[in-house]
Amino acid sequence: MSVGGKGSLVLEDDHGREVSQVRVSLTDRCNFDCVYCHNEGLGDTRGPMEAQDHEMETDDVVRFLEVAREFDVEAVKFTGGEPMLRGDLEEIIRRTPDAMEVSMTTNGTFLPGRAPDLVDAGLDRVNVSQDAIDQEAFAEITKSGAYEQVIEGVEAALDAGLDPVKLNMVVFEPTAGYVPEMVDHVAANDGLRLQLIEYMPELVGRPEWAIDIGRVHDWLAEQADRIEVREMHDRKRYWVGADDGSGEGMVEIVDPVENTEFCENCHRVRVTHDGKLKGCLNRTDDLRPMGEMTRDEIRETFRATVANRVPYYGEYMVQNDDGEWVVNEEYVERGPVADPMAADDD
What is the separation of C-alpha 159 from the centre of its chain, rounded to a whole number of angstroms? Predict the structure, then answer.
């Protein structure tokens, strides 16, 4: 544990990474049925659309965030499922500690009509999942006919002042052909940015859908007017001009698979919709319930989760007989096949 600012304690894991961010899943329910969904690494646990007893209550979520802030956590991202299925979302955001930046990942269908209230409550940023600019392809990927609602949701977010809106696009065989159109779309529309997310067969299954993300990097490098490098994750930002010269868009790639730098710079822990902490997206063996969600229980579980974090996610890193973390050569040689726990994921 390392000491942060006055009156605060920043939790640091055994590998020197301070935990400054949390991702909180508010529900495993969703009005989409995306073929690549891994539900924050838990697999397909989604249930009916009605609120479920096992979901954390409003006070539980707020109490956790207040404790996280004690450890100088600076930012929270609300996820799901679809977090906007929670009718108390605005209240949760409003009661989030003032010093924490608040963002959300959503499919965007409920943003029309609610975006202004979310901003008034304290929402700072929003990511909207949009995997294709083509309506039919979008419907095939998401198993939803809500393409127009998503477009309206993005516009509502921009109108409410959530600028820039970051579009999330998972890059795999069904979507790869739409990358150029999506890049041009964000370049031609002020206020939009694009985040291309590497497909993770370890969590989802269907390894045949995986593509070489390096080819996407190479293509963007050829198209880009300029390239920046973010310190966090050593991630590149590609600034690409629109085909018609009307603007310039920013594109990032999130590529965690076989990327040790991604994990070396990970400063977050995750909270499941039913009140469990986990230190890594790709692990389900480290789920730690927070009991009755008392402050003491939350503090104890938070400390234990941070202490149990591994340096490199999933099966890529293992401990040898001396307790040292080394690359699992057997796993690397056989390739990124599906995690057996996720083989039936959608």
Answer: 24
Instruction: Please say if the pLDDT value at position 336 is more than 50.
Output: no
DSSP string, 168-180: EEEESTTTGGGHH
Distances, alpha carbon 75 to alpha carbons 24, 41, 148, 264, 268, in Å = 11, 20, 31, 19, 9
Q: Which helix (H) or strand (E) holds 83?
A: none
Nearest-angstrom CA–CA distance, 313 and 160: 37
Q: Which domain holds residue 196?
A: 2-342
Overall number of domains in the chain: 1
Query: What pLDDT, in 10s, does the model give residues 171-210?
Result: 999 899 999 999 999 999 999 999 999 887 766 667 888 8
CA distance 43 to 345: 6
Give the pLDDT of residue 36: 79
Grouping H, G, I as helix, E, B as strand and the rest as coil, residue 232 is helix
| Span 14-43, pLDDT tens digits | 889 999 999 999 998 999 888 877 655 555
Among 20-29, 90-99, 201-210, 271-280, which is the least confidently predicted range?
201-210
The CATH number assigned to the domain holding 169 equals: 3.20.20.70
Are 61 and 90 in contact, with CB atoms under 8 Å apart? no
In this model, does residue 344 exceed pLDDT 50? no
Give the residue among 21, 71, 5 at the shortest CA–CA distance from 300: 71
How far apart (Å, rounded) are the C-alpha atoms in residues 276 and 215? Answer: 37
Please give the distance of CA 46 from its chain centroid, rounded to a whole number.
17
The token pair at 196 is 């291309």
